[in-house]
Specification:
Blueprint (H helix, E strand, L loop, with lengths): L5 E5 L7 H15 L4 E5 L5 H12 L3 E6 L1 H13 L9 E6 L5 H5 L6 H10 L2 E13 L2 E7 L2 E5 H14 L6 H13 L3 E7 L2 E13 L21 E7 L3 H6 L1 H6 L8 E6 L1 E7 L3 E4 L2 E20 L6 H15 L2
Parallel strand pairs: 1-2, 1-3, 3-4, 4-14
Antiparallel strand pairs: 5-6, 5-14, 7-9, 7-13, 8-9, 8-12, 9-10, 10-11, 12-14, 13-14
Helix pairs in contact: 2-3, 6-7
């Protein structure tokens, strides 16, 4: 029975506490659509990892994350850290209550709770890639899985400031823009050595994004042509750039033309290694972690996720093709 039931992991802090307020409505909808489930609220950081591992050990093979990108990230790490079954045997659905919900955007998952739960009921499955990053924190090497994107340098600094505001109870997509502007005041570029499948870049770096999916930063497209099942990372390196130039080109992060800028380099590859002087910070799926040196690897089509009824990879590829044509006109 448990193999056909769902285990729901609810992050009560997601959306500034919105998930707690909305949970009665979400639970009623799950019952209305005859979705059998058990649930638990997270109580501390990384608790979703523990709850996921425990659920899989108990026999659950379907997990729903109620929260944002960070909640999904912890659930995914639980799936890959458990040793009970192959991660391929687990299916993940998401009910978005967080601030950014960037992973949502990739798969046309509705933000309306009822439509989202209908998608979970329909169980349209897509097998996406999962990234693995090795990083350092307090001189100790750690390992983390991710499903959307990772940011190094300025991206990580913006995430750190955004997460600090979330911890203070603030919420809303505007948090990212506010944190971005504040971070510009003090941030300094770092010298990096980036190796992507043997291709080297040595330069002063403002920011770097390693992406599986297209969106991060509450709707920005820093890796606008990413496909989440091709076994490749999309990497965008923004070289040293003036602060006025950053402000003048913020629109490029939203309209997908960032790679057209003369100080930006786009790469693709299966493995990424990053060293920097001084050390640069890291964020993964919006969560602030450690610092360089970093090593990224990818697990092709290793996670089964529930997507929206309107999602089509063929449509996504066509859209990316059309955007590429517009950029090069």
């Amino acid at each position: 029975m448990l193999e056909t039931s769902w285990y729901v992991v609810v992050n009560p802090r997601a959306g500034g506490g919105k998930s707690v307020i909305d949970w009665p409505k979400i639970s009623r909808l799950l019952n209305r659509y005859d979705i059998r489930y058990a649930h638990a609220f997270t109580e501390y950081k990384y608790h979703a990892v523990e709850l996921t591992i425990k659920a899989i050990k108990s026999g659950y093979r379907n997990i729903i994350a109620v929260g944002g990108d960070g909640t999904l990230n912890e659930v995914v790490n639980g799936i890959f850290l458990q040793q009970q079954v192959s991660p391929n045997d687990i299916t993940v659905g998401v009910i978005g209550v967080g601030t950014g919900n960037d992973w949502f955007r990739m798969y046309d998952i509705p933000h309306n709770y009822e439509e989202c739960i209908k998608a979970i009921k329909n169980k349209r499955i897509f097998r996406q890639d999962v990234g693995v990053v090795e990083y350092y924190e307090s001189s100790v090497r750690h390992r983390r899985y991710f499903v959307n994107s990772a940011g190094v340098g300025f991206d990580a600094e913006v995430a750190r400031r955004t997460n600090r505001l979330k911890d203070l109870g603030k919420r809303g997509a505007i948090l990212y823009i506010f944190s971005l502007i504040k971070a510009l005041v003090r941030y300094r570029s770092t010298r990096i050595n980036v190796k992507v499948d043997g291709h080297h870049i040595q330069d002063k770096m403002f920011s770097l994004t390693v992406g599986i999916c297209r969106y991060n930063g509450a709707g920005m497209k820093q890796v606008p042509y990413a496909l989440s099942d091709d076994g490749l990372f999309d990497i965008t390196v923004i070289k040293r750039i003036s602060k006025l130039n950053v402000i003048a080109n913020i629109h490029r992060l939203y309209n997908g033309t960032i790679l057209k800028h003369s100080r930006v380099v786009g790469l693709r590859g299966r493995s990424v290694e990053i060293m920097s002087i001084p050390s640069a910070g890291l964020e993964v799926d919006g969560e602030s972690l450690g610092e360089t040196p970093l090593r990224f690897s990818i697990l092709k089509q290793s996670l089964s996720v529930i997507v929206g009824d309107r999602f089509s990879e063929a449509k996504l590829v066509k859209n990316i093709h059309n955007e590429l044509l517009e950029v090069h006109q």
